[in-house]
Amino acid sequence: MKTKAAVVGGKSGKFEIDEVELAELRDDEVLVRVVGVGVCHTDLICRDQLYPVSFPAVFGHEGSGVVEKVGAKVGKVRPGDHVVMTYRACGRCPACRRGDPTHCAEIFGCNFGGRRADGSATVHRHGLPIFGNFFNQSSFAAYALANEANTVKVDSEAPLEYLGPLGCGIQTGAGAVMNVLRPAAGSSIAVFGCGSVGLAAIMAAHVVGCTTVVAVDPQESRRSLALELGASHAFDPTQGDVVAEIQKLGGADFSLECTGIPAVFRQAVDCLAVPGVCGLVGAAPLGTEVTLDMNNIMFGRSVVGIIEGQSVPDEFIPRLVALFRQGRLPLEKLVRFYALDEIDQAVRDAESGQVVKAILRP
User: Is 76 in contact with 148 (CB distance < 8 Å)?
Assistant: First the structure.
């Protein structure tokens, strides 16, 4: 079928609204009418080639919508269901077989390859195949072709236009806290970077009962929002030694690095109490290196890399929807909506920090 989509023609290029053609639905695939799709940092670092992709390209990987049609072998969802589209894992490797899809051996190819596993294209423009199938959805479009495996049915009573970011950014931040770090009630955590991932982590830390929740961000509006969402302290890293300030509080039992900046990662490790755990979720250009004090690590501190909140989406995303409906995960405080043809403005607002989570409504 034909649909409108936001197409990027080259590195760091603008998004142009154009007509594209989706491939014929296969037996294990799902056609989704996109109701909302978040603009994520990962879309932009791929546009800018920090992760290599080919062009022209259709990005978008935080899509929510309504199932329009399903393949012959799809049993998980049916037409009319409300769904969130999330990341894809291969389903065959040892990690997938033990129920740990975020450590899938093929996760990079599944999400950044631009084609199906057999090399076929899911998106064409002017009769030619282009880079699509981004996170098995390419949802910067009115319709998206997903797979049953990365399509999660959600409560139809929840406002669907808000839910797309649960498929990546919100899942990443909340899952890093709830699934990986698992702080006990009464413990402390420091979150470096208060975009949608960091703020999701702060909301999750509040939900699980952390009593000292430190937000670190240079932007005053985001520090204020962090305090509104459950942070107990908020520090501007440009106005003093943030590590020293956190150590004055006794150090952090846990920290989360959400910026992808090596110097910030070093701060997130150095602010830890002994023992303490730093989770790394910030995406940096391939090949980025960081320097750590070996003695800091030796005395009981540790670092763990976290992909997609180490979540099993079919289980975790409905939990997040329930928290949202209860008012304990107030996504509405992060969001500003845009039409699909306003995508360049949405990107500018996201990159400048004027909006935490831009959501397109195709």
Answer: yes
How far apart are the C-alpha atoms of 276 and 315, rounded to whole Å? 28
The single-letter DSSP state of residue 105 is T
Is the Cβ–Cβ distance between 235 and 224 less than 8 Å? no
Q: What is the mean pLDDT of residues 76-86?
A: 98
What gap in Å lies between CA 291 and CA 309, rounded to an integer? 24
Q: Which of 61, 228, 229, 52 shows the shortest CA–CA distance to 140?
A: 61
Average pLDDT of span 286-290: 92
d(CA 139, CA 164): 10
Residue in 294, 305, 258, 297 with CA at minimum distance from that of residue 276: 297
pLDDT tens string 182-207: 999 999 999 999 999 999 999 999 99
Task: Count the neighbouring beta carbons within 10 Å of the beta carbon of residue 118.
Answer: 6
Alpha-carbon distances of 258 from 30, 66, 295, rounded to whole Å: 32, 31, 24
Closest CA to 254 of 209, 288, 284: 209
What pLDDT shows up at residue 286?
A: 85
How far apart (Å, rounded) are the C-alpha atoms in residues 89 and 256? 24
Amino acid at 199: L
Residue 285 has pLDDT above 90, yes or no: no
**Which domains, ranges and CATH numbers included, belong to the chain?**
2-167+330-361 (3.90.180.10), 172-307 (3.40.50.720)
Contact 192, 199 (CB under 8 A): no
